Structure formats: C-alpha cells, structure tokens
Amino acid sequence: MIGPVMIGPSSSHTAGVARIGRMARLILGEEPTDVTVTFYNSFATTYEGHGSDRAVLSGLMDYSPDDRRLRDALLIAEKKGIHLHWRALNSAPKMHPNTLQVDARAGNHSVSVVGVSRGGGLITITQIDGFHANLSGQSTVLLVLAQDIPGSIALITTPIAADNCNIATLIVTRRARQNDAKLIFELDDELSSETLNHMKLLHWVKEVVYIPRVLFSRGTNEENVDE
User: Under DSSP, is residue 72 helix (H, G, I), strand (E, B) or coil?
Assistant: First the structure.
C-alpha cells in the first residue's frame, strides 16, 4: 500500500490520530484552550514513542497529517497556552486496540469525540458527545442536535433532498424518549447556505454543525515551507 502522505512514524498511530484530532477541532469550530486525551489499549503504551500525542495536538490545531509542524506540536501548544491532560487506559477490552477519546473545550463550547484509527490513515469516529456515530472523515458531515419530536427526521431530510444533495449515511441516536436526539449525516454533496439557515431557524433545533468534505483533506493553517 502506498500512502498516506504524512509525518510519521506510523499511519495508524500518527496520521490517523492527527485526523481524529482534526475532526474534533472541526466539530468544535475553533482552536481549543483545554484538552484531555485518553489513549486506550495499544495506544496507551505507545502514544509517546509513536508520536500520537503530537499527532492529536496537531490535528486539534488544524494541521494536516503531512504538516511539518506536527513534529513540534507539543511545544507549539505549550506556547499557545493550551492546557493539556493525558490519560492512558491499557485495559479496555470492548474497545478497538487503536482507540482514543478527545475532550476539547474553548470558552463555553466543548466536544467529546471517540475515534478509532484503522490503519493506513483511515479513521472511524464512533462517538460524538456520547451519541453513537460512524463517520469516516471522507464525506461532508452534518450534525444536528434537536428535540426528539415526531416528524423531525423528515423535516430535516426534506430540505436536504430539495437541495439536490444525496444522503450517504444517517444515524439517529437519543439518550431517552422525548429527550435530545443527534442526527449524524454523511453527505455526497454540499449543502447551500439557504438550507443550513433553514435548519438553524427551526425552533426545536439546538445546534447545527456543517463540515464540508474539502476541509478534511488539508489543514486550513497548513505550512509548506521548503527546508
């Protein structure tokens, strides 16, 4: 297998972890000021040696897996005043061997993301804020937090269809009946600003997070300087 283009040493322990960090950053919507990362199973014993700590931080600072600043991510984060906390749990048999949880906060906003690095830089986001997910990071993502009311799914999917956008996957989870529900979409196409604004104006919708596919491929702050 050729790829991915990355700062190593490992596609699973470095590149994949950086992509999980970037997903958490994109969902949060800004650079975090407080970060707690929990490494599970194989990650718990190898995260320092394989650069997983630097990788997740680089993603949280919006660097792509091949950005040279990944090597110095710990120092950069310290200079920025980002508060870091590391946890390692090497006995979590129900979890994939390459699992980490990222809890990030910026001001009044916070996000909790659980991700699995599957090898070759591929990832799966399995939880977002405690809600079940199954995101690959290869498609446009739409996250809708809303009250669990009758007909809510149709009222969200109808304008998506009217926008000529195909839904690749949709997961709807809730913690209890008539409680908040999380609608997690992967989309084949991009949504218009009019469709997104329509969703945000629905009185029972609490939050809309939209991440175009193009944002996953490169970091918005990428630095490509020849040495």
Answer: helix
Ranges in the chain, pLDDT < 50: 1-2, 5-6, 8-9, 11, 220, 222-227
* Domain shared by 112 and 166, yes or no: no
Single-letter amino acid, residue 162: A
| Pairwise CA distance, residues 141 & 125, whole Å | 12
Task: Tell me the C-alpha to C-alpha distance, in Å, between residue 4 and each of 68, 116, 120, 156, 211.
Answer: 15, 17, 6, 35, 22
- Residue finishing a domain among 74, 104, 129: 129
CA dihedral 134, 140, 145, 149 (to 10 degrees): -90
| Residue of 70, 75, 61 whose CA lies nearest to 7 | 70
Read off the pTM: 0.85
Contact between 28 and 104 under an 8 Å Cβ cutoff? The reply is yes
Where residue 155 sits, what CATH number does that domain have?
A: 3.30.70.260
- Asked whether the beta carbons of 59 and 24 are under 8 A apart, the reply is yes
Longest dimension (CA), the chain: 58
Interatomic CA distance for residues 12 and 18, integer angstroms: 9
